[in-house]
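INSTRUCTION: Work out how this chain folds

Token vocabulary: learned, describes local backbone geometry

RECORD BEGINS BELOW THIS LINE
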Amino acid sequence: MMKRANRPFGYSLGCFAFKILPLWLVKVMCFFGLPCLLSDYFVLNKRSIQEVVKGLTKNSDLQFLLAYSSGGFGVNANRASISMLSMLHLHCCEYGSCYPVGGASEIPYRIIPVIERSGGRVLMKAHVSQILTENGRVMGVRVGQKEQSAVDLYAPIVISDAGLQNTFQDLLPENVAKFSPSWSLANSLPAALGNLTVFIGLKGTPEDLGLTAQNVWIFTNHHPIDEFEMPESEETLRYFCENPYPAIFISSASAKDPSWAKRYPDRSTISVMSFIPYSFFAKWSHLKVKKRGDDYNALKNAYGLQILDQVIREYPKMKNAIDYFSVATPVTIEHYLSTKKGGTYGLEHDMERFDPEQSSLLRPESGIEGLFFSGQDVTTCGFASTMLSGLLCAGAVLRKKYSIALDLLLLHTKLSGRPENLDSLFF
């Protein structure tokens, strides 16, 4: 079933072809029900992970194993499609996951010189407060929060990877934004769940502490199908301050990076991520970061300490090696990433979003002259997906959206030789 969704003519047509075909053509195809005839991706997108798993077996342990990774999209298994699960499993299990040697900072470190050699510039701490428009078309961006210190940068083309909601609701004037075909989605599709993240610094090597390169999910029950159901109530808030957290995701950069030991000898790190309603911390969102007061710190640390106990049970050797401990809430992430309600996944990754007609509106062309989109709202969360959204965006900007993939294949062949088969083109 997963391979049906991921066959080249299933996954490719399902995820990408409908983002480059003219919208009028997509509407005609949807009217006649053609997407489901052309791509199994759309057929299986109509079925939730919960429905499929419960239909395959009555064994609750097996249901657990088949559904646990739905947490990778931050959506409950009753609203996430089997197509999304298939993309995650086929990508990671058949093609493998990768980690950049030197850490995530190597990505900008390597790409910025390429941008600058091409005549571009990369500006740091340059907060875009507005996309400039004139007569309904984009003219550039305004950088800076205060009028007296703001700088206007003019350009005929602006590419926004700030997300659909940020772009339409905060950066563009409404009288311009509403002319985009995807304007309605920014207001109808919900933002992703907020994240609760715990950062742990440790004395000792990954080997000494028993840390491995694998990512680890830990659950406190055998019902991952409902693992992120967390009612937004005072009772729930207090309960998880005093009881094990329902689901946590553990990752160790120090165990993944082969260059870590040379750069940070006898040190290790762990990052732990889970989900929590933004409303639990919303009353502190207007306060400055690191100055939100004792009540805020007490609440977030209560959650963090519960999670820390769960991690120590999994890695008991780290109990006496903790050197650093910090907790980030949805309002922390809202501050640093400017995301709606502190979610790191942009728009929610539910079944409605990946319906063929809805999905076709999440495309690089905004429908507003001079403005294009890139990033996870165009495709999905995940590094490979956002790379592909960049490819789609480049094709739209260069007016080569039907041929840019061929250009990339020719470049790949020139640099690395002709691919052995179609599968070798996947990441």
Notes: The mean pLDDT is 88.
